[in-house]
Design brief:
Layout (H helix, E strand, L loop, with lengths): L1 H21 L40 H6 L3 E5 L3 E6 L4 E11 L8 E5 L8 E9 L13 E3 L3 E2 L5 E6 L4 E9 L4 E10 L5 E11 L14 E6 L2 E5 L1 H6 L2 E5 L2 E6 L3 E6 L6 E7 L3 E7 L3 E3 L4 E12 L2 H10 L15 H18 L2 H15 L1 H16 L1 H10 L4 H15 L7 H20 L42 H16 L6 H8 L1 H9 L4 H24 L6
Parallel strand pairs: 1-7
Antiparallel strand pairs: 1-2, 2-3, 3-4, 5-11, 6-8, 8-9, 9-10, 10-20, 11-18, 11-19, 12-13, 12-15, 14-17, 15-16, 16-20, 17-18
């Protein structure tokens, strides 16, 4: 009965997943040298925030040539290395020092940001927009570095530009030892009139990247505006611009493991936009003008996250910096209240044993231990059901022409022998959340990326790379994807088959034959799942079998 329920639950869940898969910009800095911003209707003496726009970024150079197009300020800490272009003060060159592009032994690091004249341009910028006639810096403005030429945790960098009208713009960059760059931007007004400017920050991505396009993971534009998490796919943004207004939050662009985000200064109202106009844009503009009187200085602070979605780092910024709901940058899903604590348990076990695969096995054993009393009750009932099979068959033969009578006699038999035919359902239902939570965790957390187990498993977040069709590598042939059925999925299928044999067989012969094929079917299906999930399922099967075997040996049922 339990095996029947397990298989049914897994198959149903798989069907839902497969069907779901099957069917299933913004303000940019305004500049005088580009498109002139339209004058906004003013309400009294209070100006309103202008819209911001930008012409198409030309993309025709190699990455190295595009980088060399501008003088630069170097960026480096323990997590990232890169540079800031003095032309436009763009953060457009960032490499993640601690992450390789793959786990094949190649030490090529992950490149996250690229300059604007490269065909995979991806960069961040901040600045000022105006609804007046002031000349403000744009992405062609040549800034001057004052003092330090390298941005590190111990050496801030200051850039300066004068507009020739009495306004001096200053950018003061600081960086921590992880992925956060803070920019304090000042306007020094030495003109003869008060100015009203609007601060903005923007992320621009030229092309839609290659994405996995899997429903359990969001890749695209996202942000928190007040209490609402908004996730927009690239294709949806191409069709329609998304606009939000709020007083706290952040906006960004996320990949599976990487994130860029811009966070406005606390306490300031802003308008956020996700848009597409020859490139994807995620940005905000502060809707309350920064008013700078004559001989005065105005300022605004923005924070930029550029890096890997490490759980401890993301949660740390949410707590220490007060970034509103920044922890939701990691896609924990609808059941984050369950998935995230499960990750912390596995992470704790990993720090204790040093291997995520072993941590998953320990978690599996712990789950079995927690549900041991309930499973015991279920297995005892199933053992009795198996012992009652001859009597059940006798009743079917005796009353084969009267189905109602068979049903009544069966119920009497269950009552007399104190057997609950559906007792196996509850343990199965309790296992399903763990199955999907582990699946989600393995799929979305960077901590699982390239996490090795033992032997041939070098990435628990990826499928078992071996295949029975080339004898697990003994034959020099690379099978096509649909023939990649590795050793661990086969182990899982064998353990499921043995477990099935320990359970009562379906009374219907046709049903029995169908259920014989379920382990084979699930072996093929789960071959493409993360190997960590298959290991979890295999170990769970082994522990279940051991428990069932002991209970069956101890359970004696007298039949009539």
């Amino acid at each position: 009965m339990e095996n029947k329920n397990v298989l049914a639950a897994v198959v149903l869940s798989t069907f839902v997943i497969m069907m779901w898969q099957f069917w299933y910009g913004e303000p940019v800095p305004q500049t005088q040298n580009q498109e002139q911003v339209q004058q906004q209707q003013l309400k009294g003496d209070k100006p309103s925030a202008p819209s911001i726009s930008q012409k198409k970024v030309e993309t025709k150079l190699t990455r190295s040539d595009a980088i060399n197009q501008s003088d630069r300020i170097k960026i480096e800490n323990s997590a990232i290395v890169g540079s800031i272009a003095l032309t436009g003060a763009l953060i457009d060159d960032v490499t993640l020092k601690n992450y390789n592009q793959d786990n094949t032994g190649d030490q090529t690091k992950v490149i996250l940001l690229n300059p604007k004249k490269y065909d995979q341009a991806y960069f961040l910028e901040t600045g000022w927009a105006t609804s007046g006639n002031e000349i403000v810096p744009d992405n062609q403005t040549l800034w001057t570095a004052k003092g330090n030429k390298t941005l590190t945790p111990n050496t801030p960098v200051e850039l300066e530009w004068n507009n020739g009208q009495g306004l001096t713009f200053v950018k003061k960059f600081t960086i921590d030892d992880q992925y956060l760059i803070t920019i304090n931007e000042e306007i020094k007004n030495n003109s003869n009139q008060t100015v009203n400017l609007f601060h903005y920050a923007q992320i621009t991505r030229q092309e839609k990247p290659e994405i996995q396009d899997f429903f359990i993971l969001h890749e695209g534009l996202l942000g928190i505006v007040d209490e609402t998490l908004t996730e927009e796919d690239y294709d949806d943004v191409v069709e329609k611009k998304k606009t939000f207004n709020g007083s706290q939050g952040w906006v960004g662009i996320t990949d599976k493991y990487w994130l860029t985000a811009v966070i406005p200064e606390k306490g300031k109202n802003f308008k956020a936009e996700f848009s597409y106009d020859k490139s994807f844009k995620s940005n905000y503009i502060v809707t309350d003008a920064t008013t700078v009187n004559v001989n005065q200085t105005g300022s605004n602070i923005s924070n930029l996250f550029i890096g890997a979605k490490e759980v401890s780092v993301i949660d740390g910024y949410a707590e220490s910096k007060g970034f509103h709901k920044f922890d939701l940058a990691i896609d924990w899903g609808w059941f984050h209240f369950f998935t995230k604590p499960l990750f912390f348990i596995i992470d704790y076990l990993f720090k204790w044993c040093g291997n995520f695969g072993i941590a998953i096995i320990l978690l599996t054993a712990g789950v079995r231990l927690i549900f041991f009393p309930l499973a015991n009750y279920s297995f005892v009932s199933m053992a009795k059901m198996k012992a009652l099979q001859p009597e059940m068959q006798r009743l079917k033969d005796l009353y084969k022409e009267d189905k109602q009578k068979i049903q009544m006699e069966m119920m009497n038999l269950y009552k007399r022998e104190k057997v609950n035919p559906i007792s196996g359902c509850l343990p199965v239902m309790l296992q399903i959340p763990f199955f999907f939570a582990i699946y989600k965790m393995l799929f979305v957390t960077i901590e699982m990326r390239h996490a090795p187990f033992y032997g041939w498993i070098q990435d628990l977040s990826a499928a078992d790379p071996t295949s029975i069709f080339n004898l697990f590598g003994l034959i020099p042939w690379d099978p096509p994807g649909f023939l990649i059925i590795g050793a661990w999925p086969i182990i899982m299928g064998v353990t499921m088959y043995i477990q099935q044999k320990l359970n009562p067989a379906p009374p219907d012969p046709i049903q029995a034959k169908i259920f014989m094929f379920f382990p084979f079917f699930l072996t093929i299906l789960l071959a493409s799942f993360p190997s960590g999930l298959v290991i979890y399922w295999s170990v769970n099967n082994v522990l279940t079998m051991a428990q069932q075997y002991v209970i069956i040996r101890k359970t004696k049922v007298k039949t009539v």
